[in-house]
Specification:
The structure holds 2 protein chains of 2 kinds. In chain A, 37% of the residues lie in helices and 26% in strands. By secondary structure, chain A is α+β, with helices and mostly antiparallel strands. Chain A is built from 4 helices and 4 strands. By secondary structure, chain B is mainly beta. Helix content of chain B is 7%, strand content 64%. In chain B, strands 1-2-3-4-5-6-7-8-9-10-11-12 form a 12-stranded antiparallel barrel. Chain B is globular. Classes of the chains: A alpha+beta, B mainly beta. Chains A and B meet through helix 2 of A and strand 4 of B.
């Protein structure tokens, strides 16, 4: 009985499964000027689900890292990019971190 | 006297600005653009615009014109509304058509009188990460004068910049003025640098005069 109580106590202390943030990667047309693309980051950072934003001209990519257990609807993302003056052609959700994407961008010759 | 006025106005404008492909009158939704240009002594202009949407912005500016040919000068303070009439977002390029118009007040130097003035203009531009081309026209009119400033810019970037990197461009600018401000075509070779939300370009005209512009988005 004593062992059972200890077992139940330990089970109650077991940590819940860790949640993870997702990365939303968007392919965007018109990304040719960093000065002009400032609005993308500004607009996306206003969304409460956004943790971090990466804009890569080389890859025609706008990537958003969301907060744990948070997501942003595709239409919301398309509207945000439209409000910034750009067109989204594709949206995918991946497990890539923004740091990994940044490293990939920096590594290209 | 004319050049001193132009230099002073430009210095004041640049001092007022927080500094840290084509200059556009609309930055992005809920964005503010401030710009100052010193055009070789013939024109000096400062502008500030706010864009509630990426499709339009409003604001105003001050334009000082000093003729290279005689003693005519104009100081025009104006309000303006800008519209992005059309944009093409392509996989590796962007093209735009802008239009604008507004009203203001002009001080005519040679008569000492103030006059109602209106302005209108437009710009078409095309850019990739390596080449840039724009054609812009600005018309300022009152009962005492009519001046149009036409500007063509062709730019080349030695490398394709990334978002948070310094962008470097070599730009050739050709400009013509109507209404007795300048005779012929003024040509300038410019170096353009921008990073994040600060933009500066500067160079010399064929007359050895300074042509410079700074712009800041926030």
């Amino acid at each position: 009985m004593k062992h059972l109580r200890i077992l139940l106590l330990l089970a109650g202390l077991a940590p819940a499964a860790a949640t993870h943030a997702a990365t939303i990667e968007m392919t965007v047309n018109g990304l040719v000027c960093g000065f002009c693309a400032q609005g993308i980051e500004k607009t996306l950072r206003k969304n409460p689900a956004t943790d971090d934003v990466l804009v890569s001209l080389e890859n025609r990519l706008v990537a958003v890292a969301t907060k744990p257990d948070a997501d942003i609807a595709d239409e919301t993302l398309r509207e945000a990019l439209r409000d910034s003056g750009y067109d989204v052609t594709a949206i995918v959700r991946t497990d890539r971190s923004l740091d990994a994407i940044r490293a990939g961008v920096a590594a290209k010759p | 006297m004319r050049q001193t006025r132009g230099h002073t106005a430009c210095a004041l404008a640049l001092a007022a600005l927080p500094l840290a492909a084509a200059a556009k009158p609309i930055a992005f939704a809920h964005g503010t653009t401030v710009m100052a240009e010193y055009g070789a002594g013939t024109m000096t202009e400062v502008q500030a615009f706010y864009a509630p949407s990426y499709r339009y912005s409003f604001g105003g500016g001050h334009l000082a014109l000093d003729s290279e040919l005689d003693d005519r000068t104009r100081d025009i303070t104006y309000l303006r509304f800008n519209v992005l009439a059309k944009r093409w977002n392509l996989p590796t390029a962007q093209a735009n058509v802008f239009a604008w118009g507004g009203v203001g007040r002009a001080h005519v130097g040679e008569t000492g009188e103030d006059d109602f003035a209106w302005n209108a203009g437009g710009q078409v531009d095309y850019e990739t990460r390596r080449v840039y081309a724009s054609l812009r026209t600005d018309l300022h009119e009152s009962s005492a004068f009519s001046h149009r400033i036409d500007t063509l810019q062709l730019g080349f970037a030695p490398y394709a910049h990334e978002t948070n990197e310094l962008a470097v461009w070599f730009v050739l600018q050709a400009r013509e003025f109507t209404g007795g401000l300048y005779d012929g075509t003024e040509v300038a070779a410019l170096l353009r640098l921008f990073k994040r939300n600060a933009w500066i370009e500067a160079g010399l005209t064929q007359d050895g005069k300074l042509q410079a512009m700074v712009m800041f988005n926030f």
